[in-house]
Design brief:
Blueprint lengths: L6 H5 L6 E3 L6 E6 L2 E10 L2 E9 L6 H16 L16 H12 L5 H19 L9 H10 L4 H20 L27 H17 L4 H13 L3 H5 L6 E2 L4 E4 L7 E4 L2 H9 L23 H11 L7 H13 L4 H8 L4 H4 L7 H21 L5 H7 L12
Helix pairs in contact: 3-4, 4-6, 5-6, 7-11, 8-10, 8-12, 15-16
């Protein structure tokens, strides 16, 4: 921030730069592509508002734009709604609105989510829609933007979601007419979700490779421990890599995470996971469980060790996230209900766990077969001709006798 905007500072601005005037609060200039525009950010009746004063050049100079910003601020001080020189608000562009949206809504997002929002805006949304007026009908343009990203369907759908969230925010802040979100009605691309579940035999192959590489010193013991914990807890990769010893509660058999993708979370530890944790050495001066190469840090990239492990196990198609899916698969095979699986995985919404519904069908089918066999055996026992023989032939037949009247 400069103490006062100057002509020389304006000339040095690069595309994407935003400079504030340290003398007149809220007055600034930003360069979007080739043009530099003067703006004012202020609060009107408790709401943050952005006003576009005009582009640098005819008729706006630095001093005339500063005087206009001062006039608008004086209107606010008098309790009036600030108006432009033509007694009407200048229309806000999508580019202006998104900048304000990310500034206001961004603190509510996790840093990783905010970075992804900003990236999608820069890569997909702004190049196609940035110069449109925010209050105009842009349903056709939104549809074209989404269709133009068909090569990356997941990214296109995510960008549509971000744009829809932005449009809802714009309606709430009276920058668009209520109920005019142009993203409504745009049909999302079908995403080919890839669910890979490890069989018992495949888990055995990974376990053998982990033991062999650990004994040979071919991998860091912390990398080996991280993979084992991913398999045994169903935790997300980031949750294991950033795990601190202060989060580990051995007596309660829990990992108590203060924050995760879904907020504060408790991961339950089974006996096998506890054994792995107790075997991990603590490094003096490092708070993390999975210690990395840098002093005081944790492992940042587990992909390279994992690629070596899966290659040796002959499982080139298995991703680290598939270990989480496999944990859920085993839970379903053992008869775990979807709510129980969701609780173990830390899902916030039941619909997230619904992707594993087809896995829960296997134990249900098995139980159904046992029930059918038991009932059929009971029914056949009531037949005086074949009842005794059927009971002998069917090992699942109950040891019941039919009274003779």
């Amino acid at each position: 921030m400069s103490s006062r905007l100057t002509q020389s500072a304006l000339k040095k601005m690069a595309p994407g730069d935003l400079l504030w005037d340290g003398e007149l609060k809220g007055f600034g200039a930003r360069r979007q592509r080739g043009a530099t525009t003067f703006c004012l950010k202020c609060r009107v009746r408790g709401r943050q508002r952005w006003y576009t004063i005009g582009r640098l050049g005819s008729p706006w100079t630095l001093e005339s734009a500063r005087r206009e910003a001062l006039r608008l601020l004086l209107c606010i001080a008098d309790g009036d709604e600030p108006l432009t020189r033509k007694d009407e608000k200048q229309p806000v562009t999508v580019r202006d609105g998104i900048e304000q949206f990310l500034e206001e809504h961004g603190p509510k997002l996790k840093p990783k989510s905010l970075a992804e929002y900003a990236r999608l805006c820069q890569v997909l949304i702004l190049p196609k829609l940035g110069d449109l007026k925010l209050d105009e009908d842009m349903r056709r343009e939104v549809g074209r933007m989404h269709a133009g990203a068909a090569a990356t369907p997941r990214q296109a759908n995510h960008a549509l979601m971000v744009l829809s969230s932005f449009m809802s925010w714009a309606e709430k802040n009276q920058l668009r007419e209520t109920g005019t979100n142009p993203c409504r009605g745009v049909r999302k691309f079908r995403e080919n979700k890839r669910d890979r579940y490890l069989s018992g035999e495949e888990l055995g192959r990974i376990g053998t490779v982990l033991d062999r590489r650990e004994s040979a010193g071919a991998e860091s013991p912390f990398s080996i421990a991280a993979v084992r914990l991913l398999i045994l807890t169903g935790a997300r990769l980031s949750e294991i890599l950033t795990l601190k010893w202060s989060y580990v509660d051995i007596p309660r058999r829990q990992l108590r995470l203060p924050d995760s993708k879904t907020g504060a979370k408790v991961i339950r530890l089974n006996d096998a996971a506890l054994t792995v944790l107790k075997a991990i050495p603590k490094v003096v001066g490092n708070a993390y469980v999975v210690v990395g190469d840098r002093p005081g840090g944790h492992i940042v990239n587990l992909q390279k060790p994992w690629r070596r492990i899966r290659r040796e196990a002959g499982l080139e198609d298995v991703r680290l996230h598939d270990l989480r899916h496999s944990f859920a698969s085993v839970a379903a095979e053992l008869g775990g209900s979807l709510p129980m699986i969701g609780k173990l995985l830390g899902h916030k919404h039941p619909q997230t766990t619904a992707r594993y519904a087809h896995l829960a069908e296997d134990p249900i089918d098995h139980l159904n077969d046992l029930i059918g066999g038991r009932i059929a055996a009971a029914l056949s026992a009531s037949d005086p001709v074949r009842g005794s023989n059927a009971a002998k032939d069917d090992p699942s037949s109950p040891a019941t006798s039919v009274p003779v009247k």
